[in-house]
Amino acid sequence: MTLTPQNLPADHPPVLSCRIGVLLVNLGTPDAPDAKSVKTYLREFLSDKRVVEIPSLIWQPILRGIILNTRPKRSAEAYAKVWGEKGSPLAVITSQQAEALQARLGDQAIVRWAMRYGEPSIAREMQALMVAGCDRILFAPLYPQYSGATNATAVDRLGDWLRETRWQPAVRTLPPYYDDPVHIAALAEDTARQLDALDFDPEVLLLSFHGMPLRTLELGDPYHCHCRKTARLLEEALARPGLRVVTSFQSRFGRAKWLEPATDATIELEAANGTKRMAVAMPGFSADCLETLEEIAMEGRETLLEAGGEHYAALACLNTGEPGMAMLEQIIRRELSGWI
Ligand SMILES: C=CC1=C(C)c2cc3[nH]c(cc4nc(cc5[nH]c(cc1n2)c(C)c5CCC(=O)O)C(CCC(=O)O)=C4C)c(C)c3C=C
Ligand SMILES: [Fe+2]
Ligand SMILES: [Fe+2]
Question: What positions does the entry give for Fe(2+) binding (predicted)?
Answer without folding.
Answer: 210, 291
